[in-house]
Amino acid sequence: MKVFHTIFILLFVFKISYSQQDTLKSSKSFILNKVIEQTIDSSNTYYNNGLYKKSLFSNIKLLKLAKQSNDPSYLSKAHRYLAYDFLVVNDTLLAKQHFENARKYAEILDDDLTLGLSLMDLANYHTRSDLDYDKALKYHDLSIDKITKAQDSTELTKAYYNAIVTAFYAERFEKGKVYLTILNNPVFDKYKPDNFFPSEKNFWAIYYNEKKQFSKAEVEAKEAIKLLDKLATAEEKYDVHEQLSISYYGQQKYKEAYEQRLLSETYYLESIELWQDEQSQAALAKLNVDQYKTQIKDQKEKTALQVEIAKNKSDLNKFLIIVCTGISLLLITLFLAYLKRRELNFALRKKNEEYLQAKEKSELLAKAKNEFFSTVSHELRTPLYGVIGLSTILLEDPKLKTHQEDLKSLKFSADYLLALINDVLQINKIDSKNIENEESEFYVRDLIKSITSNFEYMRLQNKDIINVEIDPEIPKYLKGNTVRLSQILMNLVGNALKFTENGTITINLSLKESIVNNNCIIHFIIADTGIGIPKDKQKTIFDEFTQVESLNFMYQGTGLGLPIVKRLLQASDSEIFLESNLGKGTTVKFDLTFTIVNESVIKEAAPLLNQSLLRGQNILIAEDNRINQIVTKKILEKKGVNCTIAENGQEAINLFIKNSYDLILMDLNMPIMNGFDATIEIRKFNKEVPIIALTAVEIEEQRNEVYAAGMDDIIVKPYDDNVFTRIIVENLSKIKNNYNSSTRLS
After folding, report:
1. Which 3 state secondary structure label does DSSP give 746?
2. Exposure of 108 by Cβ count < 10 A (0-12 exposed, 13-18 middle, 19+ buried)?
3. 694: phi > 0 → left, psi -120 to 50 → alpha, else beta; which?
4. 3-state DSSP call for residue 631?
5. Whole-number Cα distances in Å, 417 to 65, 79, 393, 414
6. Which class for 30: exposed (0-12), middle (13-18), buried (19 or more C-beta within 10 A)?
7. How far apart are CA 621 and CA 644, in angstroms?
8. Which residue, 661, 732, 664, 654, is CA-closest to 694?
9. Per mean pLDDT, which range of 203-207, 330-334, 512-516 is the poorest?
10. Could you give the residue ranges of the DSSP H alpha helices within 170-312?
11. Are the C-beta atoms of 200 and 184 separated by less than 8 Å?
């Protein structure tokens, strides 16, 4: 029993000890909070009376105490007060830093009122410091919203008042009027300080003077004067009498205007004296800011600010005399410039509004233009796919050998029409700065051969000869933008053939300079013996839709070939040179830089296109256009593919659920359900099957949307048979390789 009795006594002693510790902690916390509240009261008194040096010391102490308490409410308030001190001494960097810290602790506290006050501080900072009125007004609106939620009418009254001040500073009088109208509601009257009532009337006077409603402004200004009490500042009196003077002047009451102006100037001089006193106090505080910065880094130097003040006391007096003299002269200059500045600001604001309207209109037109070209691209390329595809299939039919020439003419006409469409779309793409700069390796001699083969029919029609001369010093394999180079050469060679009959077109490539840093510059010359270009037309030949007049040819083209070439070369940091004589032919020259590629790298990287993969494959074709269905199906069936047709996206989903397919060709624009939505639904059932988009719209416009829907690749209609086959084989190969890999791993 004695043992239990002893244990009981020990436990009782421990309990008393812990209780005493808790009481001690509570007592310390109470005392600390009491000291913090007293420091806050002192800070407010010093600041409101313009004793900024004492205010600064008081708030530095407040921040230390707040950190000891670790209370977000006190921390937010301490940072707010310090920020206003730094604004007074024009240290905007520290002011902004402390305003942001105040907001951070307000967010931690998660209190609408504290956060609302912090947002109001940031608004005041942007009004007074960087003059970013847009940001200031945004913060005012956020502040009003938060304080309204907190249901604190006194602070809400101040929030609206501060918002009015910013709006009128920014000369956004209609915005200010909105705040002013709300604040005029009698519900706020019992929460307003006495100086708010004459200020409101003065704001109305300013508004009516700006609107040239001078009689209304007079009434409001007189009401404001009646409401001014003995405690009104000289600055407040100056503002009111200044507005009354302006209203009299606007009503051509020049005598009364003059009397009010004299009175306002008296208050103005008085306010300058008071302002100079405040600036003296601010200057005293400013000398302590650097010491405060040092104190943040090293808390041990607690008395550094006082030492610095004593050391520089004599210099400070001289400094204050110089500062006050300079400020007086500056204020006089600013006062004279005030009216001129307002006039200039109004003119500038007007010009900015006109510019923004023009910019918005330009952007809308550009958007409409791009949408139009996108629609044109789809509507023209879709039927062309059928024409080119069917003519290609018929050309390969041995039963139609007697119609070979007719079919070649048909295909040439379709190819030519496609080239015209591509020219128009290319110009639009360059205008909207959407041209790509994708580089790839290529064999230069094969590229030139491929380009010239495209013009075989035109060459035979015009009975021309094409000579290709390639400098043997040019490396076999190069790296560059082959798409851009092909577009340039296709336009130039096509132009040369178009305006040459029974003549010669020469394509010459030579190494311009010795190879440096694995780069080489190739000099291109495209020369013809055609009709030539008159001297007076050579300056405008590179303008859009400009053509050389000719009676010898059935077609003239769009006049876009050479402008496209010029712009593509400019995008490659190059330029084109033209020489031509009427009746003797034309020569164009340009230079392009390429990177040299090692032949062994090309051989290692060269993929093998195994078309045998297509045989026996089951491919679903989702396409609503009947002609395009026939063309695509015939091309694939010739390669041994089993094809199934779906008329729309919903039908494609139904067929996929019931059957097994190795690959899906998905048209993007279909009735009932489009290709995007159909792909998203199919991916819910199967993540592996390759889905290739078929589109007549430019790839750049839909690339992100296509891949986001879950498609693996894109084929643009009308397409080259080889490109079409290569893309399908590559996607089937990926699936096969993935399957083999997974088999080996298992």
Report:
1. coil
2. middle
3. beta
4. helix
5. 81, 71, 19, 5
6. exposed
7. 6
8. 664
9. 330-334
10. 173-183, 196-210, 214-227, 234-250, 254-286, 289-297, 304-311
11. yes
Each residue's pLDDT tens digit, 532-547: 888 887 777 776 545 5
Is the bond preceding residue 718 a cis peptide, omega within 30 degrees? Answer: yes
Which pair of tokens denotes residue 376? 């044109």
* CA–CA separation, 108 and 71 (whole Å): 10
CA distances from 462 to 55, 372, 450, 529, 555 (A): 93, 36, 19, 12, 13
Quick check: 594 and 478 in contact, CB under 8 A? yes
Q: Name the β-bridge partners of 588.
A: 526, 578
Handedness of CA 63, 67, 69, 74 (dihedral sign): positive
The two most distant CA atoms of the chain are separated, in Å, by 132
Contact 63, 79 (CB under 8 A): yes
Cβ contacts of residue 416 below 8 Å, gap of 6+?
Answer: 555
Q: Which residues contact 254 (CB under 8 A, 6 or more apart)?
A: 248
Q: Are 308 and 288 in contact (CB under 8 A)?
A: yes
Nearest to 509 by CA among 591, 391, 624, 418: 591
> What's the rounded Cα separation, in Å, for the pair 91 and 95?
6
Of 652, 646, 659, 663, nearest to 712 (Cα)? 663
Q: Is a pLDDT exceeding 50 seen at residue 341?
A: yes
CA-wise closest residue to 225 among 243, 194, 198, 258: 198
Residue 449 has a CB neighbour count (10 Å cut-off) of: 12
| β-bridge partners, 691 | 664
Phi, psi angles (nearest 5°) of residue 354: -65, -40
Residue among 631, 678, 618, 625 at smallest CA distance from 647:
625
The two tokens of residue 475 are: 């490396």
pLDDT tens by residue, 383-431: 765 676 666 677 666 777 676 666 666 665 666 566 556 655 555 555 5
